[in-house]
Specification:
With 241 residues, this protein is α+β, with helices and mostly antiparallel strands. The protein is 68% helix and 8% strand. A hairpin with a 5-residue loop joins strand 1 and strand 2.
Length: 241
Amino acid sequence: MEYELHGDAVTQMRLSYDNRRLVTAGKDGSLCIWQVTSPSATALLPPPTPSSAVALAPTLEESAAAAFEYANEILITKSELEEKNRLVANLQNQVEETKTESEYQMRLKDNYYAEEQARAKKQSQLQASDLGSKIQRLENSLQVARNEHAGAVQKSKEEFERAMIESAEQYKSKLIVEYQKFETLNEKYRSLKKGYDKKLAGVEKAKEETIRKIKKDFDEKLRQKDIEVLRREKETEIKIK
């Protein structure tokens, strides 16, 4: 069976604690109580609307086929509904006026910000131009300083090379003098070494001769001692006999 009880859209709907009753409230102020015939499908029930057909049984348990009627109690009066509609209309008008005022203020702010942006852009362009001129002057000064520095470096380099050449010539002359001194000292050393070697050879020869003479004298003395010992031994033997 199909029932269309609400005269306007349904605003709220609730199930009873046992999931057997469905209470719906419409935008027109009507309140309906429905008996749910399939509790297992309650979660799938769509909200009833005037254009939709709801296949639910009426709430009267003693007569399942009885037709539903509007409740006798009026939840809200027509005058109250009209007053609320007027309030809603006034609020909508206020919202529109506020929206219009806001749009006007936004346009004023947009114009103000556009002017400020143009002024700031012009000022930034002037500052950029000024900065460009300053940068150009600084670049020119930097180029002049670089040229001066390059000239000073080149001059220092030339002076350094000239000083190095002079130092090299002086060092070369000193080196020649020192080398001549070294050759002279080396010649003296060779001469002294030759004389020392000659003297050393003579000393070694004299040393060997002295050692040989001392050895010869020692051997002679030792032989004389041996002869003396033999003689004394013979005399001792004669005395003993």
